[in-house]
Each structure stands twice: as structure tokens, then as C-alpha cells.
Design goal:
Elements (H helix, E strand, L loop, with lengths): L3 E11 L7 E11 L4 E6 L3 H8 L6 E3 L5 E4 L22 H14 L4 H11 L7 E2 L9 H14 L2 E6 L3 H10 L6 H6 L8 E5 L5 H10 L2 E4 L1 H6 L7 H6 L3 E4 L11 H35 L8 H5 L13 H15 L17 E4 L16 H11 L5 E6 L2 E4 L6
Parallel strand pairs: 1-4, 6-7, 7-8, 8-9, 9-10
Antiparallel strand pairs: 1-2, 2-3, 5-11, 11-12, 12-13
Bound molecules: zinc ion (ZN).
């Protein structure tokens, strides 16, 4: 066991670049002394693995029958200073909420001790410097320009907000009349790079999404916040079709939940709401057309509209739970540009993982022996909570339960 820190055996569920959901049963995964994945192989070759890596049966941590590993989930957008007022002031729209609730609280963070305590509560170790203009409204063109140059000079990550609410976009148009759109405000000032993550993007046009793809910039989809502040909906399917990098964000405290499980559920629900709205507007359009046609002579009736009703119901193209799982894990790591470090169980990456126990004491859902691993994952994603998360590993270190409690 000189080179090996942990050896795990059981079921692993993750996403790959080719597949949203891969369920790998009866496998063994070993980590090295710095928490990187050394091997990930079929358990049928256990004896060969134990010879090669120098471990024996007693070193193996085997999962229970229905337990499984999944990658740690990645929150691509959260405000540490806003954690203090999570769940408060959700009645206001974005700009009012910022004015009344957010800015006054954030002002108190000039107290360094207060700031240190809060950041230690919310933020984990993997912190890198990142250029963070709040959003275009709070910046002058000169400031944006200097921040872009700073990011370029030091090759820094960049994060901000974009096209979150109609009132915000209107204000950006007023403040930056020389720019064609919101995306151009960041892009022309060198703030849209392959190290950029922009939160929301609910109202980005197809043209703007193309610029995101060309620059390699990512969107953090924050559905809880978008609903809570009545900002809008991001059409995830359309952004994915444009091949824009994307992950999920809680956007605490615009979003009231700190849980990525909540973000997964709301991302799926948002996609379904968009689908229903679109179906309704198509039905309404068809009805209007049909009424118009009733008043037409037969030879004036357009064949296209006769054959076209309810097209979207045959094309139920909503975000699947598998895609939402991918967004919360590998998609998030790609959005943050850390997919070479984390996001799935690939040899050489750090071992960031959760052990999920669907049969935990007080589990909010039930399983029986007929339920497959895939169904268990679905139930966990839709119904599960912290009670089902038996352990959390970050870079090979078990951080939950805390070592003192084990
Ligand atoms: Zn935000």
C-alpha cells in the first residue's frame, strides 16, 4: 500500500465526454497519496491489481449492495457574502432585490473578520483568483476594459452575470449605447474568454450564443434564482444545441437553496416549463390560423398549416435527468475549466466523490431489490437529500463525515 491511499470496490456512476450517464458495476478504484485516481478497473482482475499496486483484501473498502459512487457535484455560481441572508427578500425582482437586500449586506463585508468567517463557511480549498465584475451595470466601460486587460495579462479566470432580467438588459442598453448587445459589452472588453463563466444568460440571442461558443465561454445555469427573482428562464436545450459550455449554479442567495440536487430538479422543471409554454403558443397560433382558414375559400388553405399542429408534442425534447446529472458534474467542471482535475472517475483526475446510500436510515425515498442502479440514481436525484450522502471525498480525502465523527 505504499503508492496507494484508498482502494474502493462497487458501483460507480458518472458522465463521460461521450455519454451523459455511465453505470459501471463491480469495479475497483485506487487513489494515490495525493488523492489522484491511480486505477479504475473491473474487479474481475482484483488479484492482478493487488499484485501490481501492493494491497490486499483487508485494504479494500467495499460498498454495500445498493450503494454507489458518483462524482462530487459542482456549483458553478454562488455568492459567499449572500449566504447570510439566504431565503430572505425573495418577493422582489432582481434590481430591487440587489438594492434593498444585497448591496446593504455586502457593504458590511468591509469588516475583514466577518468576511473571513463567512468565506471559510462557504468556500472550499480549490480557490483561484478570478476577475469578477458584478455585472455591466455596476461598471464603467473604462473599468471593464482594465479588468479585461488584467485578466489577459495574468491569464485569469473571469466570472460575472449576463442577460438575467429584462430590466437589467434595458439598463445595459441605456448605459452602453455603442454596443450591439450585452455579450458585446463583455466581449469587446476581453472579458469573454475560454476562462469565463457567465451566470444566467436567460435572454441571450442565438447570435450571442454563437459568440459564447466561439470564445469558449461558459454559462452557469441558475434555475432557482431565475424563478425566485422572476428573472426569466434559460432555454438549456437551445444553449446545448449551440454547443455552449454549461454547468449548474445555486446562485445563493438569488437562489434560496444551497443544494445542487435542487439545481438539477429546477433545471429539469425549467426545461419542461419552456416546452409547455412553447407548445401552448404553437397551439394558440394554430387555432388562430384555423380560424382564419375557416373564413377562407378551400383553395386558399395553406397545406403547411394543415399538417403542422402539435409538432412539439411529438418532439418531447426536455432536459433529461441524465443531462442534468452531467451538467451538475462533468459539465460544471468543463464550464470552470477544471475538467482535467475533476468531474468524473478518470485515471489521473482527483478523486472527488460521493457515496450514495439509497437505503440510509430515514431516507426520504424507498428502494426494493427490484430497483436497478439507474432507477436508484433517478430517485436520489429527484427525492434524495443529505441523508443519502454517506461520505464525501475531495481530492481523496474524506471530508464528510468529518474524521472526528467516524
Ligand atoms: Zn449571481
Amino acid at each position: 500500500m505504499d503508492a496507494v491511499q484508498h482502494v474502493f470496490k462497487g458501483t460507480f456512476i458518472h458522465s463521460t465526454t461521450r455519454c451523459d450517464l455511465e453505470i459501471i458495476e463491480n469495479h475497483m478504484l485506487g487513489t494515490d497519496r495525493v488523492g489522484k485516481i491511480l486505477f479504475f478497473e473491473d474487479a474481475q482482475i482484483q488479484s492482478r491489481l493487488s499484485q501490481k499496486w501492493g494491497f490486499d483484501e483487508s485494504n479494500i473498502q467495499a460498498l454495500g449492495n445498493n450503494e454507489f459512487f458518483m462524482p462530487g457535484m459542482i456549483d458553478t455560481h454562488i455568492h459567499a457574502p449572500q449566504y447570510t441572508f439566504i431565503g430572505i427578500g425573495m418577493e422582489r425582482p432582481l434590481l430591487e432585490w440587489l438594492e434593498h437586500t444585497t448591496f446593504p449586506t455586502e457593504d458590511t463585508f468591509c469588516d475583514v473578520e466577518l468576511a473571513r468567517n463567512m468565506y471559510n463557511t462557504v468556500v472550499y480549498d480549490r480557490v483561484k483568483p478570478i476577475i469578477t465584475p458584478r455585472f455591466a451595470i455596476s461598471c464603467s466601460e473604462r473599468l471593464l476594459n482594465k479588468l479585461g486587460k488584467l485578466a489577459e495579462k495574468h491569464d485569469l479566470h473571469i466570472q460575472s452575470h449576463i442577460s438575467e432580467s429584462p430590466a437589467e438588459i434595458k439598463e445595459v442598453r441605456r448605459l452602453f449605447p455603442d454596443y450591439n448587445n450585452y455579450t458585446e459589452v463583455y466581449d469587446r472588453n476581453k472579458l469573454l474568454t475560454n476562462k469565463t463563466v457567465m451566470a444566467h444568460g436567460c435572454y441571450l440571442t442565438n447570435e450571442e450564443l454563437c459568440v459564447f461558443r466561439e470564445r469558449g465561454a461558459a454559462i452557469s445555469h441558475c434555475p432557482n434564482s431565475n424563478i425566485s427573482l422572476c428573472s426569466g428562464h434559460l432555454d438549456v436545450r437551445n444553449a446545448l444545441n449551440h454547443r455552449v459550455k454549461m454547468g449548474l449554479g445555486t446562485d445563493v442567495a438569488g437562489g434560496y437553496s444551497i443544494s445542487l440536487l435542487d439545481a438539477i430538479r429546477k433545471a429539469i422543471e425549467t426545461s419542461k416549463i419552456i416546452f409547455m409554454e412553447r407548445s401552448k403558443s404553437e397551439r394558440d397560433n394554430n387555432e388562430t390560423q384555423n380560424k382564419q382558414q375557416e373564413n377562407m375559400k378551400p383553395d386558399e388553405v395553406n397545406e403547411d398549416t394543415q399538417n403542422g399542429p402539435m409538432k412539439t408534442e411529438n418532439n418531447h425534447n426536455v432536459l433529461s435527468y441524465k443531462e442534468a446529472f452531467w451538467l451538475a458534474t462533468l459539465g460544471g467542471s468543463e464550464a470552470l475549466g477544471i475538467d482535467h482535475i475533476t468531474g468524473n472517475f478518470k485515471v489521473g483526475k482527483e478523486f472527488d466523490a460521493l457515496i450514495i446510500n439509497p437505503e440510509a436510515k430515514d431516507s426520504p425515498f424507498e428502494v426494493n431489490s427490484h430497483v436497478s442502479k439507474e432507477e436508484m440514481l433517478q430517485r436520489f436525484l429527484y427525492l434524495g437529500d443529505d441523508r443519502n450522502i454517506k461520505s464525501v471525498y475531495v481530492a481523496g480525502i474524506c471530508v464528510v463525515p468529518f474524521p472526528s465523527n467516524t
